[in-house]
Write a structure and sequence with these properties.
With 305 residues, the chain is mainly α. It has a single domain (2-290), classed as ABC transporter involved in vitamin B12 uptake, BtuC (Orthogonal Bundle). 71% of the residues lie in helices and 0% in strands. The protein contains 13 helices and no strands. It is globular and about 60 Å long. This is ABC transporter permease. Pfam families: BPD_transp_2. InterPro entries: ABC_transp_permease (IPR001851). It is a multi-pass membrane protein. One of its GO terms (molecular function) is transmembrane transporter activity.
């Protein structure tokens, strides 16, 4: 039973990372690096939480979180795509702004409580011993994330818009010469990425940890950024990596529940140490990264040049 709870917690934790990382993957496939994921997730977390407090509807809360993430992404996109500001500096500024603004906006919501959460379960399957508790009693977004991953694989590899998006990330100059609106495509990709980061942030505050505290995203935005490189820009690997890093974060708490004495500092460190170790291993073979990395990632595009 304890192992079923560990798997269930891993799926929940991994869902937050997967949603955000898939959004960032869309950005990077178009050639844009957004380091503001942490700030967008924090603003979306408070937007979604506050919305549910006032409306009692979790799905409206998700929509509010996505809108908050998309709004911040639109500001970021306008700056880096049309005003050609540095992508890395602008993303860091967005992350700092999101951290400060969410703390300010969330002051009066620290003690608020959400309505009692709906219990979800897939009929019949949820009653199967061990397996039901581990896999079939989750919020619908857990399953929708898996479905969306499959859709994104199909979209990027089998559809014309997906191939155009990838071509913009590979060579914006060539795409522009063929008549594609490179800046508009990049902006739409940034909006989609921001909306998904917003969904991840709101899921965190509404479902995963149904409360609001300052800085509650706690580095998940940075881990999501690392996931795209870990996965070498492949959606399926993003999903698997999200569950891996989410599971590492939950493993320490599981061991504590089994009586293993682990200092709390190590528990806080473990989830962030795992991506560092994995990325260090991957970096020993640059070919793994270059194989799928968009050629123009992080590079500005000047239509007149």
């Amino acid at each position: 039973m304890e192992y079923a709870l560990l798997l269930a917690a891993t799926l929940n934790a991994g869902t937050v990372l997967a949603i955000a990382a898939l959004g960032l993957l869309i950005n990077e496939k178009a050639g844009i690096v957004n380091l503001g994921a942490e700030g967008m997730m924090l603003c979306a977390a408070i937007a979604g939480f506050a919305t549910v407090v006032h409306t009692g509807n979790t799905w409206v809360g998700f929509a509010a979180g996505m809108a908050a993430g998309a709004l911040l992404a639109a500001i970021f996109g306008g700056l880096v795509i049309w005003f050609n500001t540095n992508q890395y500096a602008t993303g860091l500024a967005l992350s700092l702004f999101g951290s400060g603004f969410s703390a300010f906006a969330g002051v009066k919501y620290v003690q608020e409580k959400l309505p009692e959460a709906t219990k979800y379960a897939i009929p019949f399957l949820s009653d199967v011993p061990w397996i039901g508790e581990a896999f079939f009693r989750h919020h619908p977004l857990v399953y929708l994330t898996v479905i969306f991953t499959g859709f994104l694989i199909w979209f990027l590899n089998r559809t014309r818009p997906g191939l155009v998006l990838r071509s913009v990330g590979e060579s914006p100059e060539s795409s522009h010469a063929l008549g594609y609106p490179v800046r508009r495509i990049r902006f739409m990709a940034v909006l989609a990425g921001g909306a998904l980061c917003g969904l991840a942030g709101s899921y965190l505050s509404i479902v995963y940890t149904p409360l609001w505290v300052e800085g509650m995203v706690a580095g998940n935005g940075w881990i999501a950024l690392a996931l795209t490189t870990f996965a070498t820009w492949r959606p399926a690997r993003v999903l698997l990596g999200a569950y891996l890093f989410g599971g590492v974060g939950q493993l320490g708490f599981f061991l504590q529940s089994q009586g293993v004495q682990i200092p709390s500092q190590f528990l806080s460190m473990a989830q962030y140490l795992a991506p560092v170790v994995v990325l260090a291993i991957i970096s020993r073979n640059p070919a793994w990264i270059r194989a799928n990395m968009p050629n123009s990632i992080g590079k500005p595009f000047y239509p007149g040049s």
